Amino acid sequence: MDDIPDHTDVLVIGAGIQGLVAAKTLLQLSPHTDLLILDSQHSIGGVWAKENCYTDLKTNNQLGTFEFTDYDLAEACPGKVRKGEHIPGEVAHDYLYKYAEKFKLLERVRLGCKVLTAEHLLDHKNGGWQVSVIPKPAGTANPKADVGDISTPSSTPTITLTASRIL
Questions:
Q1: Where are the alpha helices (DSSP H) in 52-157?
Q2: Model pTM?
């Protein structure tokens, strides 16, 4: 899960709700696509990443309004939410993690990787985009703690990859 290739056919930036659905849908339509998902968080889920969830955090949604048509939340997280209740943040995270697991997206996700730039390349043999990324430091559980201020690219090592398409 730590390696970032030099090139990928499709790069999805963000492992939140929309990134996961975009990746799953594209792979459903084109299963042999070389697809990579990058996210700066330590866990998948975007807003509902585990590190963003705190005690008593809930979505504005009730059971039945925060789920994908092809993956039932009540079945994925049995007994965690009752009808008429708002969905706790940790349940939202667990649901998104299980969704990524079910549709085999986890092996395509690289966490702790902040995308700095994406430059469109009109005439490039490997694809249409050059992407600059601050990778997760090797052997760290908390990439932001070891990198420092990841908004200052001059103080941190970056890698570059190309992508034919970006979602």
A1: 73-76, 89-102, 143-147
A2: 0.85
